[in-house]
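User: Just a sanity check before I run the rest of the batch. Below are the structure tokens for the first item. I only need the designed sequence back.
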């Protein structure tokens, strides 16, 4: 699929085909392409969650949106604040590690679409609870969760702002 086609096709999918599992080869491909995402110093970690009881716990501590409870797996993108701060100091810890995790998650979304899979970005969750569920050590901070699976729905594109409303030339006016 062409890049622009992938971007056009990406949607936030919340209902997944429970009869289809994500093949290991496809998951591996997604992770390989995620690893190619631009990054300050790869100040992120990814936890692949496949165990149903752990997924259920993650969705229970996620709030503010429809929860993708039928997804066969989730990818939890975490900022590795220690790794980023070792090179970039406070800015690395407070910003670059989070940016690295977010960019990696965006690449994972596009790779998934290219392989016929779907995701939804979950950003509303109880961070301390997710950290506990995935047993993340202290310098690791969950930033985003992607549900991942085969879509059982094909939602319409969400309404977007006009380019003229979001783009500013030279300065805000």
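Assistant: Here's the designed sequence for the first item:
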């Amino acid at each position: 699929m062409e890049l622009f086609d992938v971007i056009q096709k990406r949607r936030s999918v919340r209902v997944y085909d429970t009869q289809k599992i994500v093949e290991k080869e496809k998951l591996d491909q997604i992770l390989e392409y995620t690893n190619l995402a631009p990054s300050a110093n790869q100040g992120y970690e990814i936890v692949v969650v496949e165990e149903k009881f752990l997924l259920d716990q993650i969705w229970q501590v996620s709030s503010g949106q429809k929860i993708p409870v039928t997804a066969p797996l989730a990818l939890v993108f975490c900022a590795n604040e220690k790794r980023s701060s070792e090179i970039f100091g406070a800015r690395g810890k407070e910003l670059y590690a989070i940016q690295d995790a977010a960019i990696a998650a965006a690449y994972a979304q596009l790779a998934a679409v290219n392989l016929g899979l779907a995701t939804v970005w979950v950003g509303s969750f109880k961070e301390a609870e997710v950290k506990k569920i995935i047993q993340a050590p202290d310098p690791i901070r969950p930033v985003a969760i992607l549900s991942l699976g085969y879509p059982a729905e094909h939602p319409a594109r969400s309404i977007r702002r006009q380019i003229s409303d979001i783009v500013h030339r030279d300065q805000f006016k």
